[in-house]
Amino acid sequence: MFSGIIKDIGVITGIDQDGQSKTFTIVSELLNQIEIDHSVAHNGICLTVISKTAKDYKVTAILETLNITNAKDWKVGSKINLELALPMSAAMHGHLVLGHIEYQSRLLDIQKIEDNQFVLRFELDPVFNALVQYKGSVTVDGVSLTVSHVNYNEHYFEVNIIPFTWHHTIFSQVHSGYIANIEFDLIAKNLFHFYKVSQNLI
Fold this sequence. Notes:
It is a single chain. 12% of the residues lie in helices and 42% in strands. The strands form two sheets. It has a six-stranded antiparallel barrel with strand order 1-2-5-4-3-6. A six-stranded antiparallel β-barrel has the order 7-8-11-10-9-12. By secondary structure, it is mainly beta. The protein has helices at residues 63-68, 163-168, 186-198, and strands at residues 8-18, 21-27, 39-42, 45-52, 57-61, 79-84, 103-114, 117-123, 137-140, 143-151, 156-161, 179-184. It has three helices and twelve strands. It has two domains: 8-84, Elongation Factor Tu (Ef-tu), domain 3, CATH 2.40.30.20; 103-198, Elongation Factor Tu (Ef-tu), domain 3.
């Protein structure tokens, strides 16, 4: 379980192909807090640490993960948002995040409001309309954000990025057309699932 509060920007230093899976070597300032078998969110993807050295650690993404996330686009030198698993005693500064990506969204536009304050507009597939609402929570590349605007007719939603988030995540490096990992709000998903079951829609 995570909260969507990024703790470091990791760097991919190696990629090994293992059949249909890929193993990524990552360097991070969080290394001394990471152990083998730990779950770590990488751009919002929950991946298990499989090995560790004094300078880096490794995680493996299977084909399913590569198919539904932007991990398939990572290259040596790519920077990714990192978050350690949330202790049960920790304060919830973001919102409940599982690290299970449900949607890849294309960044449509970046609008600069003032110095280091930006609005990011992301594509929204209508199938997910019920899970995105004004002032609701959404996780973008592992970052807990509040939806500042949503347009269901034109199929997009927007999030505001404050200066601290801009400088402490990979958002300052993305561009229009970038594909981001999206995890929708856990409570919204559960309520929507309950509704569909109660209405015999699934």
